[in-house]
Amino acid sequence: LLKLQGGMSPAHTTGHLLLILLLIEAGKTLDAHSLCLDLTVKSQSRPGQPWCQVQGSVDTKPFLRYDSASNKVKPLGFLGKEVLPPCSNALVHPCTSASMDGQLFSLTP
């Protein structure tokens, strides 16, 4: 993880390791979650093929998928069904707008 470099004392390195451990533990006690949106845009897609795909994940677990060919948001797993509204048409086209029609959803599993 950390490598001793010229002039860096073992005490200095130990201090860095303790700081890293404290930060990791702080994240655990706050029940922090990570949200990731993977957006793929194909500049030269053929007609009928998706030119834009989006996959959303919380804590590396996928909860939604969208592609421009179907123009639909597909919930994935339990979290996707909990997070997305019953009518996914309430979502604005994610490849043309970052808006979700002013709606906020809890992404906590």
From TrEMBL:
Keywords: Glycoprotein, Signal
Membrane-crossing segments per the record: none
InterPro entries: MHC_I-like_Ag-recog_sf (IPR037055), MHC_I/II-like_Ag-recog (IPR011162)
Signal peptide stretch: 1-26
Name of protein: Retinoic acid early transcript 1E-like
Species this protein is from: Bos indicus x Bos taurus
Protein's gene: LOC113898570
